[in-house]
Design a protein that fits this description.
This protein is α+β, with helices and mostly antiparallel strands. The protein folds into two domains: 50 residues; 104 residues, Methane Monooxygenase Hydroxylase, Chain G, domain 1. It is built from six helices and five strands. A five-stranded antiparallel beta sheet has the order 4-3-2-1-5.
Length: 164
């Protein structure tokens, strides 16, 4: 059971347990969650469903392991016709490695388009922003850094690995 002020992941959103209400609705106890990215958003989750709908944030050790593995995480290999479907599938998987795969693929596709003076595809930009949001929000809470400092931390660590 979670406690007040704990951070949890609900779907892909990072939330803080703002309160725990006893016999709140239908005579059941509820977690009252506040979204980290949108503090005006309040979510009520029955405690009995908490094990299914909520998960713990990953640990700092897991973050560091994922960061060390970033150079080995491949790109999405599919033609443009099926790319959005692949992005959606990876987003729905909920794994950090799949989010990184989206970030790497969309970043390189956007960079390549920009260098060849072509318009950046909206689908790439949309999934890039979503994947970054979900990944960096969780990592920033775990690392106790701002989202911008988290991006810099990850880039610095990856560049350090590549240099060695």
């Amino acid at each position: 059971m979670y406690k007040q002020n704990d951070y949890v992941v609900y779907r892909k959103d990072i939330c803080q347990i703002e309160d725990i209400k006893e016999k709140y609705f239908n005579d059941e106890d509820y977690y009252i969650l506040k979204s980290v990215t949108d503090p005006s958003l309040k979510i009520n989750i029955p405690i009995s469903k908490g094990d299914v709908l909520l998960r713990d944030l990953i640990t700092k050790e897991e973050v560091d392991k994922i960061i060390r593995d970033i150079p080995n995480i491949g790109l999405i290999k599919t033609n443009d016709k099926f790319l959005e479907h692949e992005y959606r599938e990876l987003m729905n998987s909920g794994t950090h490695r799949d989010l990184i795969k989206i970030i790497k693929t969309t970043y390189l596709r956007n960079k390549e388009r920009a260098e060849s003076k072509r318009r950046i595809a909206e689908v790439d930009s949309t999934y890039f922003e979503l994947a970054e949001k979900y990944l960096y929000n969780e990592f920033s809470i775990v690392l106790d850094l701002s989202v911008d400092d988290t991006k810099k931390y990850i880039l610095d660590k990856v560049e350090e690995q590549i240099a060695h």
